[in-house]
## 1
Amino acid sequence: MSARIRHIAANTFREAVRDRVLYNLIAFALLLTGAAVLVGQISINIERLVVIHLGLTAVSLFGLVIAIFIGIGLVSKEIDKRTLYTVLSRPVKRWEFIAGKFFGLTGTLVVNTLCMAVGVFLALWYVSLRHQMLASDAWVLLALYFIVLQFVIITALALFFSSFSSPLLSAVFTFSLFVIGSFSEDLRGFAKMAHGMAGWLITAVAYIVPNFSALNIINQVGQGQGVAPQLIAYNTAYALVYTLAVLAGATLIFDRRSLK
Amino acid sequence: MAAIEILQLEKVYSVGFWRKRPKRALYPLDLVVEEGEIFGFLGPNGAGKTTTLKMLMGLVFPTAGSARILGLELDDPRMKAQIGFLPEQPYFYDYLTAVELLKYYGRLSGVDEKQLVSRVEAVLKRVALEDAAHLQLRKFSKGMLQRVGIAQAILHDPKVVFLDEPMSGLDPMGRREVRNLIEGLKAEGKTVFFSTHILSDAEALCDRVAIVHLGQLRGVGAVEELTAGVRAQVEMVWAGTSLPSGISALVAETHAAGDTMRAILPQEEQDAALDLLRRAGARLISVTPVRTSLEDYFLAQLGRNPSLDNPTESAKEGSAQLTTFGKP
């Protein structure tokens, strides 16, 4: 990574920290601790399942909100406030700016997820005081890794839309893609049943939207099931390739944009 | 080598949502700024000054034409490492302190990490912000932001400094300090290209100026060369409270103050006006030549003062290059 990308990424991370984005972690910790105590009292024998579901879904939602609401402003806010002028008038290439912003927000989300993961494991530890920790609980780490991969794609998408449209539209587009992408396996199944032009169209949409459903293994992990190593490699490669393609698109658009 | 060479640079924006229509922000512009010059780029609001600067900075892409800075293309990173830029009404990352902001910009400009701290300290001292060095920018006044903007523009010791309305938002003392700073940059051998609509600053500072209006270059040259083309005027003061008959046809403007009258008129009308005053029995107090200012020239170019005889002819007589473009 070039030094300029690193500096822009560090500044983006610092902005998130100074804007108190990471304060959501306190809310998250309180929520999970409270939920674990509550779950311990009202559920019989399924405390572990509920804590894993609740914890990982909360990690996913908190991260999604941060990725979208910071991501959509990464470029447009810099243009609106004209802070970009003093950056791009230096020896900084536009693609370096996009890459720096991407790594900065991704870094913020990774730190965020790591902190929230501690909360999830503390809640799991609490419920396991009565039922010992299981070896399969380690799969929670893999689910968290897949959630981070989702954040990486969402950040790239938010950045892509932010490079040419308003924050509101960027938020709508990104969230819509997240929702559609979460049902992409269903969409692919539906495409197999459809015929003719509609079949082609649905197949195209199903393969263009990000496949978030493949990156969601919360159910499996909750039930203590493992994941095949091929899936880990496949999901990792898929997320990286998809992210690179989206970032390349963002750079192509931003490279041609005049900053009025 | 010229510091800045602009060749037929023009910009046409597309405006409108559904039915796009062209809006010309800058007609083809030719301009050369020599190294070591303080060059003023003057014009009223909406003249095309900021558009020109944004094109030079690579923020806006020209519709046609080209430009080179220090002999290098506008997208050349080697060129960008040697220039500094202060945008109009600058806004910076307000969650950073002045020191953090300057370190960030210094790193992006490739300033050596070992020199960075001393550079930042020196530049903060130069813009009189040492006391606010560790204050977050969200607590800065408009004038302080302008100073930090100038600091980031000169931090990496650039050869050419572009300042868009550098005096904007500053009190008289601040303006004086910025003027001193710009003169200091010239003394260090740097080229300063700044846009402004405050003509007194340009007149006091610039080796040469260019005037743009409605996207067209109206004139370029040294201030004294440009103002030489403006018709000489005299100020006449006499005792009285009214204008003698016939004199109003000769004067450009009149002012009454107590029991004295003051009139500004072209120098060639001076004798005729004195005759009229004598015949009316008025007591003459003074006749003083009016120094032709850049403002007179500027207003003449904007068509708001008819006292310019013939701009093109005047420029031919002097060494100033005066360009007038007809609208295509």
Note: The radius of gyration of chain A is 20 Å.
## 2
Amino acid sequence: MSTHAVPLDTIVLLPDQATATIPKKNYITAEHGLLSWLLTGDHKRIAMLYLISITFFFFIGGAFAGMIRLELLTPQPDLVSSDTYNKFFTMHGIIMIFLFLVPSVPATLGNFLMPIMLGAKDLAFPKINLLSWYLYLVGGALTLAALILGGVDTGWTFTTPLSTHYLNTHVITAGMAIFVAGFSSIFTGLNFIVTIHRMRAPGMTWFRMPLFCWSHYAASILMVLGTPVLAITLVLVVLERTVGIGVFDPTKGGDPLLFQHLFWFYSHPAVYIMILPGMGVISEVISTFSRKRVFGYTAVAFSSVAIALFGFFVWAHHMFIMGVSNYSALVFSLLTMLVAVPSAIKIFNWAFTLHKGSITFETPMLYAFGFMGLFTIGGLTGVFLGSLGMDIHLTETYFIVAHFHFVMVGGMLMAFLAGVHFWWPKMTGRMYPESLSKLAAVTTFIGFNLTFLPQFILGYLGMPRRYHAYPQEFQVLNVLSTAGATVLGIGYMLPLLYLGWSLKYGAIAGDNPWQATGLEWQIQSPPLTENFTEIPIVDYEAYDYEWLEKKQKEQVTTVG
Amino acid sequence: MHISPVLWQFLIKWLHASALFPAEASTIAPYMDALYFFLLLLTVIGLILVGSLIFGFSLRYRRSRNPVATQVEGSTLMEATWTIIPLALFLVCFVWGALLYFRIYNPPANSMNIYIVGKQWMWKAEHPGGQHEINSLHVPIGRPIQLTMISQDVFHSFSIPDFRVKREVIPGRYTTVWFNATDPGTYHLFCTQYCGTQHSGMIGEVTAMTPEDYEKWTQQSTSGMSLAQNGERLFASMGCNACHNGTATARGPNLAGVYGSKLTLTNGSQVLVNEAYLRDAILNPSQHVTAGYAPIMPTYQGQISEDGLIDLVEYIKTLQTNYRVQQTQVTSQSNQAAPVTPEMVKP
């Protein structure tokens, strides 16, 4: 194997396709039959189970988004009834947040890669890992039950007293769904924390861990500490609905605002649960495709921890206009500004990782660039909303909708797709088709901007979110947004098709098609069930491309 | 490319009828827009910076031009730069935003108060002169208007985008916002907090008028009774005057002049009597017992609507003497007792 054959605009190094084979013994072929999957303790198999389930829910949630955009094509409420429309955006929110975004990167890529990156044979608690997938399924099934029985129309925020006293839909079923799915997320977080603390291979010090592990560590802390608060809050909503305990009911001495404090105490950190693992993916991808160690490794690692820490103390910025004390609003606004800084650090560190690199532009890198651009917009528009006075005009409008879609979809979904493409050869042993996937990445980027940029303008005009009908003069921008959503939909369908195709027809990837440095790239693709035949001893820093080059040269000499 | 003239006309008309920037129709709007453009500038600069770093480095250091990467560990100086500069800019946004926030949420003392009651799915406005309107709000331009708002059921949010003001309308609690309209005209009024089925139908029109027109409007739309007068009637019919009458033997505290004063409660705490306190004291009297009085007042939770509470509060606010309270009490007692009162016999 030599690098001379590699053309200069790519780093892809595939084995000779005429002779290459997928290793006969790997985690996919280790055992056969449905039961061997359903009862597996292998983190890689569980990751694949998660990947299939979250993809299923992503497309259900996406279908609801499509229906919302279709209804908003015209100002009149003419496609569906108001109640149906309200159910559309509620189900879209619940499914996308709790069943797709929260588990997206951690439960799939994180599950697959964390033990391998750390040099371990599995996560600390394989059975709890499997249990977490089953809890996810129970949560998903309850959500589908709520959907099939007639849906929920509380909005994903379950605001009291609307959710407790005024709606006659399946609030309890949906609440229980999120309650159960929450535990799946707690277990995943717990598994990651223990694995990172206890199961790193010899020589794998904290500061030799890939940044992917750091960001998952930060997200895991949020999952373990934040999710129980949401669970209890939902139990209180159910108790309020069923027996009327009166915690949130002002006529019984309760406080309706208390619900929002409790809800956002989880749901703001949840934003970081969603975005942090995505940031981990971006660190890996940017480094690999510029052949360079991430600029300021320590700063990027600690900025993840800083985001996790500050993330817990900004929840009331969702309530600036809700009659909270002006002085507490002041404190929360200040803390919100502080939490924006670590994100800015990350963006600049990634940008400077490119400096003096040797950059190639494979699909994961395109998605990563998309992430950086869209997350910059998403982050900076967050500063608009963190700025107290500005928030008065912008909150509860389409500006908010555009802002969090830039962070969650433009940021997180781009990162997820970057990661799926990046590790696809490792997970399946085969390459995805490069030019088609580049087309998908560009389509997604264009469609996304066309969908959500007009919504910023709509928001400043004052168009409220969750509106079934809207004034005539907002139509042009809404039509643009719906047109964009169509393009975006195509951009998301493409990977589903060609990744499925590549499972059988993709080029055989070999161990390390990207010539990346992580431990996961030093083993066969797809990996063995036990990951490593012997536990590796780590004697090099993360992202050490010189070490990799030396190692490859040695292999050439020994083999040749 | 050839575009058919009909289609062209259609496009022009369509774009002309669409909005891209909201009207500036209140005194606060230009201040809001100034901050908005500052933030927008910040975003555009940030985006151009990140974009040119990515594109610049991608061109300069692409593999075909720079086949071998140079490993760099990082640079504390550079990292400090892009920590401190964004932090400083974000702090400017924080201070600027905070100043605006305090301005919007602290009404001037001389503002005219209008009550707003939100319920599924309509807005009810109550002017001091007793004018009621549904899903519309008439206000004079050129003077500060304070809105004191409450919800009768779920959370709503009162938003007038062209004035750049918005505030949550909460069940069981008064919230306030104020504005000073500058241009006569009609403006959108939206409920921006999701409140159930007809959320997007909970809209209305704010009509800003010259003071003269507003004067005319108030005269044409009055029901003949001001809020305080409604309150006086309610005060008597609910029997409040049986105890709150200011006589020496009264079982309830004297309410004349109580608004704006400081009360000492039985638990020793001091409270400022404002609208919110008066409302709470009617609904949860046992938690607001004035020092020296027995906790005998029953709760009126569920017996008075939010409109009625507003009337009562407005009445108590205007109450300066107990003369009329005692009058109504005498009248109601005398009605029950005997058609002829002793006083009337005397002469």
Note: The CA atoms of residues 76 and 82 of chain B lie 10 Å apart.
